[in-house]
Amino acid sequence: MIKKIVPLFLLFVSMVSNAQQPGEDKWGAWYMYFGTNKVSERLSIHSEVQARYYETTSNFNQLLLRTGLNYHIDPSAIATIGYGYIDTDNSFGEIPGEVNSIEHRIFEQFILKNKVWELLFEHRYRLEQRFLDFGDATDTQHRARYRIQMTLPLTNTFYLNFYDELFINLQDDLFGQNRLYAAVGVNVTENSSVQLGYMRNQFPNAVYDRLQVAVFYNPDLRGLFNKKKP
């Protein structure tokens, strides 16, 4: 009896291990661009591009394009409404399948900022309406996100950045994911910076380690929109 059970158990373990190959043992990478461009005293445009890989330079995972219109209530409070387009390769993803999934996403966001001693805090609250197309099926999902971020200036040029972000599903299982992040940042110019960091991305059944390279470029575009006619 034991001789029959052992081979069956080993076969089961092999099948499970082969079925669960989501790239958890790989160091993936996210390469990102973020822009916030003032177009008036109260309004700015958010732009964002992210290329995500299961490995540092190969095995495409996801392309994310996001934009939004920001309303600056005051220097410490910003409200945003926006749209995102997400193309995901599901070969290692949460949703099995060979065809990439496409997501159209609408989001509403509110940011509050405050300072404690030299620490700069940012609280980001976001609601998302997600319209997903898996090729042979579609789905609509809703979720909420909360991110607390802390920035510590070291000099006028260098700084440290940390955040933790929790994703809450508004249907099915409550916990979606949690992202814990730490980075070193460099202020290149008055309106541009670069961050090199590490993110631990935890899902209900998987944990991913991700290198992050982010470029921030925030030129003020009010001069282009407020030019006086000759």
Question: Could you characterize the architecture of this molecule?
Answer:
The protein is mostly beta strands and 230 residues long. The chain has a single domain, classed as Porin (Beta Barrel). It is built from 2 helices and 11 strands; from the N terminus they run H-E-E-E-E-E-E-E-E-E-E-E-H. The protein has an 11-stranded mixed β-barrel. It starts with a helix and ends in a 5-residue tail after the last helix. Residues 1-20 have low confidence and may be disordered.
Features:
2 helices, mainly beta, Porin, globular, 230 residues, eleven-stranded mixed β-barrel, disordered N terminus
Output the radius of gyration: 21 Å
Total beta strand runs: 11
Q: Name the helix and strand elements from N-terminus to C-terminus, one letter apiece.
A: HEEEEEEEEEEEH
CATH topology: Porin
Cα distance, first to last residue?
94 Å
Largest beta sheet, briefly? 11 strands, mixed, barrel
Which structural category do the helix and sheet elements fall into?
Answer: mainly beta
CATH top level is: Mainly Beta
The tally of structural domains comes to 1
Outline of the structure:
This protein is mainly beta. The chain contains two helices and eleven strands, in the order H-E-E-E-E-E-E-E-E-E-E-E-H. The chain has an eleven-stranded mixed β-barrel.
